[in-house]
Amino acid sequence: MQVNIPLKKTIDNSYDITIDSLPKLHFDKKVAIITNTTVSDLHLDYLKERITAKELIVVTLPDGEQYKNQESINKILNALFENRFNRKSLLIAFGGGVIGDMTGFAASIYQRGIDFIQIPTTLLSQVDASVGGKTGMNNEYGKNLVGAFHQPKAVYIDPYFLKTLPLREFGAGFAEIVKMAVTFNKDFFEFLQDADMRDEQTLIEAITRAVKTKAEVVAKDEKEHGIRAALNYGHTFGHVIENETKYEKYLHGEAVAIGMVMANELACSMGLISNDEAVAVKFLLEKYSLPVDYEIKDIQKFYDAFFLDKKSSDSKITFIIPKGIGDVVISDECSKELLISVLEKFGVDNG
Amino acid sequence: MQVNIPLKKTIDNSYDITIDSLPKLHFDKKVAIITNTTVSDLHLDYLKERITAKELIVVTLPDGEQYKNQESINKILNALFENRFNRKSLLIAFGGGVIGDMTGFAASIYQRGIDFIQIPTTLLSQVDASVGGKTGMNNEYGKNLVGAFHQPKAVYIDPYFLKTLPLREFGAGFAEIVKMAVTFNKDFFEFLQDADMRDEQTLIEAITRAVKTKAEVVAKDEKEHGIRAALNYGHTFGHVIENETKYEKYLHGEAVAIGMVMANELACSMGLISNDEAVAVKFLLEKYSLPVDYEIKDIQKFYDAFFLDKKSSDSKITFIIPKGIGDVVISDECSKELLISVLEKFGVDNG
Question: How far apart are CA A262 and CA A179, in angstroms?
Answer without folding.
Answer: 13
